[in-house]
Amino acid sequence: MAKLKLDLHDIYNRGDEIEKELNKIIEEALEKKIKMVEIIPGKGSGQLKKRVLKFLEQPHIKAQYHRIKKDSKNFGRLFVYFKK
């Protein structure tokens, strides 16, 4: 299965870049018909993960993907699955 990966460790403290990168990876997944995107906000305090989830829950973003899965073995990782 083809997938894309976005690691947010390097930009965790730059809010505008975080949303820009999230938008970019979602657009790329849609253009290339990628079925899954792995997003790594990291473990930390959990604030970045909350921010990513809040971004993904926006109605205009949510309409573009099928579901989100939180990794049960790694708290610092999310999977976003796209409609076929």
Short synopsis of the structure:
By secondary structure, this protein is an alpha+beta fold. Helix content is 38%, strand content 21%.
Description:
The chain is α+β, with helices and mostly antiparallel strands and 84 residues long. It has a single domain, classed as Ribosomal Protein S8, Chain: A, domain 1, CATH 3.30.1370. The protein is built from three helices and four strands; from the N terminus they run βαβααββ. It has a four-stranded mixed beta sheet with strand order 1-2-4-3, with helices on one face. The longest helix is centred in the first third of the chain and has 18 residues. The model has no long low-confidence stretch (mean pLDDT 90).
Give the topology, please.
Layout: E1 3-7, H1 15-32, E2 36-40, H2 47-56, H3 59-62, E3 67-70, E4 78-81
Parallel strand pairs: 1-2
Antiparallel strand pairs: 2-4, 3-4
Let me know the largest β-sheet: 4 strands, mixed
Helix content: 25-40%
For the residues shown, what is the average pLDDT?
90
Tell me the number of strands: 4
* Oligomer kind: single chain
Structural class: alpha+beta
Number of helices: 3
> Could you name the ranges where pLDDT drops below 50 across 5 or more consecutive residues?
none
Based on CA atoms alone, the radius of gyration comes out at 12 Å
SSE order, one letter for each helix or strand: EHEHHEE
Tertiary shape: globular
What is the CATH T-level topology?
Ribosomal Protein S8, Chain: A, domain 1
Placed side by side, the strands forming the largest sheet appear as: 1-2-4-3
CA(first)-CA(last) distance: 12 Å
Query: Into which percentage range does the β-strand content fall?
Result: 15-25%
Second-tier CATH architecture: 2-Layer Sandwich
Total of domains: 1
